[in-house]
Design a protein that fits this description.
This protein is α+β, with helices and mostly antiparallel strands and 88 residues long. Helix content is 34%, strand content 32%. Strand 3 and strand 4 (26-30) form a beta hairpin. The termini are far apart.
Length: 88
Amino acid sequence: MCSYIIDLGDSENLMQPVKVIQIGESLAIVLPTEIVGRLGLESGQHLRIAETETGFALSRHDPEFDRQMRAAERIMDRYHETLRLLAK
């Protein structure tokens, strides 16, 4: 059984059960109003879901973060050997 941790981007994690519903051929998660308000979500926005040791973390999608992570991955690929040596 998986748990769902709603990452609110601060030091608090609010754990609440969420409902899974079927919409056509897909499944959707119904978020409680409090979570929607705290995340500042609106219909149609994208969320990021990441697997963690305890379940999954859900957070707002940030295109700038994605851009920065892609840049970091390129740097790590390019300087893999150097970074490996520095880590010793």
